[in-house]
Amino acid sequence: MQTFQYQQSITVDQAVQAGARSKTAQQFADVRFIAGGTTLVDLMKLDVERPNQVVDINTLPLAKIEPAPGGGLVIGALARNSAVAHHPVVQRDYAVLSEALLSGASPQLRNMATTAGNLLQRTRCPYFRDTAHACNKREPGTGCSAIGGHNRMLAILGTSKDCIASNPSDQNVALTALEATIQVQGTKGGRSIPIQDFYLKPGSTPNRENILEPGDLIVSVTLPAPVPGTQSHYLKLRDRAAYEFALASAAIVIKTNGSRIERARVALGGVGTVPWRSREAEHVLEGQTANAATFRRAADAALKDAQPASENGFKVELAKRCIVRTLTGSTQSA
Amino acid sequence: MEQESEAAAPAGAIPVTLKVNGKSYPLRLDPRTTLLDCLRENLNLPGTKKGCDHGQCGACTVHVNGQRVNSCLTFAVMHSADEITTIEGIGQPGHLHPMQAAFVEHDGYQCGYCTSGQIMSAVAVLSEPVGPSDDDVKQAMYGNICRCGAYPNIIAAVQTVRRKA
Questions:
Q1: Of A4, A107, A109, which has the smallest distance from its Cβ to B31's Cβ?
Q2: Confidence of residue A333 (pLDDT cuts 50, 70, 90)
Q3: Which pLDDT value is given to residue B82?
Q4: Residues of B in contact with A108 (CB under 8 A)
C-alpha cells in the first residue's frame, strides 16, 4: 500500500477544504475521505486507490436518522448500514431499503459501512480490481479486459464499448426506487441531488462514476414521505443464498387500488453499470391490472435494450423473472 | 519498553493510544497499519487471525465499541477513541466465556483458524436482534467462513448459549 498522510476532520468545513485540494473526486483521487473504510481500505490494499491524503470523517456529527421537515426521513451520511437496516421507521415505511441492506455484505461489514460510503461503492469487476490487467475505468485509454474476457457478473444495461462494469450495490437500488435525494456540502455551499442524476454511465469516460467534484462531502440522504398504501420489496438473486453480490436484483415500490396499479417505481441491481431506474417498466405497470401478464410485459420493457456480453446473456431472462417475482410478492401482501 | 518502540517507529509514524481489552497501549504507527496487523504485530495479541485480509472471511472479527467488525479493513490510527475487544478479552483459560465453553462442548472447530472470529461474532449475536431458529443463526453468522465445515457444531454451540441466556 502506498504511504499517505492521515488527518482527522473535526468540522464539515475542514473536510470540504481538505477534499478540495484533490485533483479529482473520481478514480485516482489524491485526497480521499474515510468513514467505514470497507471499500477504500480494500482498494488501497490492491493499489487501485492511491490517495496520498486520507481524511478521517468519522467524528463529524452526521450519523443521525431523523424525520425530515415536511415528512420523509433524513439519513445521516455516517449512519451505519446496520443502524439504517434495523431502524423502526425504515422497516415500517421503507421496507425495500431495509431488505436491500440486509441482503448485502455481512453483519461485520454492515456495522462498519456508512450510507454515503455505500453510495460510492465501486465495481467488483475482477479486471478493475487487478492492476495487472488493462482497465479503462482505472486507467482511461488502456482498454477493457472484461469485454471478451470473464464477464459473467458484469452489466447488460448502460454499457459502452469502453466499459461493462456492473454496479454491485443493493442499498442504491432501493434508494433509486424510493427516489431519494443526496445532500452534498461543497466548496460553493450545499446542494441536493436526486439519486437519478447522481451516477454517470461509463460512456467513453468510465473513470467518472458520479457528479461529485473535489471537496464535495455527502452529508445526508433524504427519503420522501411514504405514499400511504404503498408496498415495497427487494429481491436479490445470486449464486449463493447469502454473502454474494447480485446476479440480478429488483427493488419495487408499488401502490395498488384493488387490482389496479396506481403507482410503481422499479429499479434493478446487478445488471446495470449504475443503479438502474426502469421507467420503461413503470410506464407499462401504471394504470394496469396487477397480474402475471402485466408483470411480464413490464419485465420485457425493462430489458428491451439489454446488451449482454459473452458470458452474461443468461442475465436477461433472469432479470425479467426477478422483476416478475418481486412484483408478484409486492402485490400479494397488499 | 517506551524507548524500544520509539527507536523502531517508522518515519511518518503517528502517535496513537489504543484501548484494547480494557488496557491502554501508547503506540507510534505507520498509518497504513490495519487494526488487525496492529493487534497481532504491535500488541502481541495474535488470537485474531488473518484469513483473507479483504473483509471476506470474518477470521479477523473483533468488537469495536461492542459492535463486531472486520479488523482487516480499518486503520489502527482511526480508533483512538474506541474500546476494542479481542478474543483474548472474551475469556481466559480457566475462566472461559460461556460461548468459548460451548464451542469446546459442541466441538465447534477443527483446525481452529476461523474459531476466534466465529466466537467474536457469536458473542455479538447475543446482543443483536436475531430470530430464534437455526436458520436465523446461520443468517447472523454468514460473515464467518469455515473451510473445515464445522458449521453444524458452531450453530449448536451458539444456540446452546442463547437458550441458557
A1: A4
A2: low
A3: 98
A4: 55, 58, 61, 68-70, 121, 143
Domains of chain B (ranges; CATH) run 2-90 (3.10.20.30), 98-164 (1.10.150.120)
Residue B62's closest chain A neighbor by CA? A108
For residue A28, what are the domain limits? 5-56
Paired strand residues for B25: B18
User: pLDDT tens digit string along B130-145?
Assistant: 999 999 999 999 999 9
Select the residue from A81, A84, A106, A244 to test the B interface by mutation, using most B Cβ atoms within 10 A: A106
Of A56, A78, A93, which residue constitutes the final position of a domain?
Answer: A56
Please give the C-alpha separations between residue A177 and each of A96, A236, A269, in angstroms, as whole numbers: 9, 14, 11
